[in-house]
Amino acid sequence: MEPVLNRAEIAELLRAIREGRLDLEAEEQSTFLACTPINLFQLTRRDSEQFRIPNFDIILDHFCRIYATSLTNQLQRTFSITRTALTSHEFQRFMADKSNPGAIGILDMSPLKHGALFILDPKLSFSMIEIMLGASPEIAPVHLDRLLSTIELNVLKTIITDACTDINKAFGALLEMRTALIKLENNPRLVSIVEPEAEVIVGTFLIKVGEYSGEIHLVIPFATLEPLREPLKELLNITTKTRSNWYEILADEINEIPLTITAHSGTITMPIQKLLEIGADDILYLDYDPTSTLKVMVEDKWRFSAIPGTHNGKKAISLTAIID
Predict the structure, then answer these.
(1) How distant is the alpha carbon of residue 44 from its chain centre?
(2) Last residue of a domain, one of 220, 255, 290
(3) At what angle do helices 150-170 and 122-132 cross, to 10 degrees?
(4) pLDDT exceeds cutoff 70 at 242
């Protein structure tokens, strides 16, 4: 229990205050802990993507899978893409940090307004140029401290155009988008899609292919995504429409999976010792009748029969039967 002052002690306390012997300012300051000012209008946490744009991370993760497959098919190397961050920034401050951003693709995301930016960092930009020009996988990545040239930007145009198609697929469960590349830039000061103080949502992706790696930033104004807030909330609800949309998306992606088809004209079985003795001018006899049909294998399964021939000056096969 706190001690209680008697009448004499109270009188002495009041006298000390009147005479200035008691410093009330110091006493008041000693009762407060150190504190920092806060903005009550930001208590909703601008960086909380789950609160502000619910389920948007699902769209971005879906884009990762689609775009990785597209790059793998196009460039014949195995790409992996992982979303590493989803953050909120002021547009001007975010672009100010990108003094040498690499390649900046300005996208139109019709029917949504404002558009978006697709940014490849310098390291990834030069690595992708090497890959697209046929560099060997054994060559170490090149790191150049300069802006991309106009020719180099044109080389990168293809993969950013493919990204537009994959963005449309990722958003397909919400609406039919017509994303298109408007322009490629290498100077962030020449890029403006919203007001400088406007809020943007930035998805950051780590892309890897062999020894090459780098980051991609997908910058979308918050005002662009705001009309999708309610559809995104309903994205995971078990409704017939949602199930149908995701079913169609998955079915489309399955249809794009690459398969290896091989036409077998004959096979040889021999012991290892004889295989090791084979020389440059040796003749190997196939267990194959030139008048018979070929076995056409899809991966490791016999799916068709065919006869060999030519078409338009190129070797070809004509399917004669489907094997159940």
Answers:
(1) 26
(2) 255
(3) 100
(4) no
Please state the separation of Cα 90 from the chain's center in Å. 21
Domain that includes residue 317, residue range: 261-322
- Residue 240 φ/ψ, nearest 5 degrees: -60, -40
Strand partners, 120: 103, 216
Return the pLDDT at 77. 87
Please tell me the distance from the alpha carbon of residue 161 to that of residue 105, in angstroms, as a whole number.
9
* Phi, psi (rounded to 5 degrees) for 297: -100, 130
Tokens matching residue 98: 């990108």
Beta bridge partners of 208: 80, 213
User: Distance (Å, rounded) from C-alpha 4 to C-alpha 119?
Assistant: 69
The DSSP bridge partners found for residue 103 are 120
For 28-38, write each residue's pLDDT tens digit: 444 445 566 65
* Same-domain status, 143 and 72: yes
Residues 121 and 184 both lie in one domain: yes
* In a shared domain, residues 248 and 295: no
**pTM confidence score:** 0.57
pLDDT tens digits, 251-276: 777 888 888 888 887 778 888 888 88
For residues 239 and 256, give the distance between their C-alpha atoms in angstroms, rounded to a whole number: 26
In the predicted structure, residue 49 carries a pLDDT above the cut 50 = no
Strand partners, 109: 179
